[in-house]
Write a structure and sequence with these properties.
Layout (H helix, E strand, L loop, with lengths): L6 E5 L5 H10 L5 E5 L11 H17 L4 E4 L2 H14 L4 E2 L5 H7 L4 E6 L1 H4 L2 H8 L5 E6 L3 H6 L6 H16 L4 E5 L7 H5 L7 E3 L2 H14 L12 E5 L4 H7 L5 E3 L3
Parallel strand pairs: 1-2, 1-3, 2-9, 3-4, 5-6, 5-7, 7-8, 9-10
Amino acid sequence: MSNNNPIGLFDSGIGGTSIWKEINQLLPNENTIYLADSKNAPYGKRTKQEIIALCYKNIDLLLSQNCKMIVVACNTATTNAIAEIRAKYKIPIIGIEPAIKTAANKTETQNIGILATKGTINSELFNRQVESYTTIKIIEQIGYGLVELIENGEIESPEMTKLLTSYLEPMIKANIDYLVLGCSHYPYLVPAIKKIIPENIKIIDSGEAVAKQTKTILEKNNLLNTDTKNSQQVFYANSDAAVLKNILGFSKNVFEKSF
């Protein structure tokens, strides 16, 4: 495995680009390949076996492109399939989970909120994590409809505001002081969320932690790319790539591909 080989990332659409941005910022020398599986989004509506099969499909494609590491840039995929993925593939695999531990360690009100997909909240891995915090009240909310609106480029739409308000108001009334975003799509909603919640409520996502873990694993396996020449970032979408291009802010190296 060459150090110059790319890092492979995938998500059920464009949301995992929030993770890619953190990794690219921390590790600008690394080449990356990102798969936006928008055709099958949201994963949160699918069964565990369907999610596992989709993960295998995406990883096989990334491995065919000689990726040296896989980042599962999707909470639902991680919480439902990470054990099966790691059992099947022998290269380094990074997953992403809701940052409950960080919020639980920092809360002063002993009340935290979690906004996540149905697939994540219903997963065994997520529930084991929640159950370990017996002294903290955790208000869980499934973000019905949010991923679909983000995938359609409707982040600032009235419908998005209406949905977010209905999901967040009960958390505000419950006196949360931390809001955990349990879906890699949701960081793109932070500006809209901040218009609804009080300033004292802090928002946490997993992007920075995943980037740091990616660097740690690359160092441990002697896979850091030390080539300081321009790195190459390639993005594939299996549906209309316009929203992906818009959220990235550029169109270079963004392609539509059937997978």
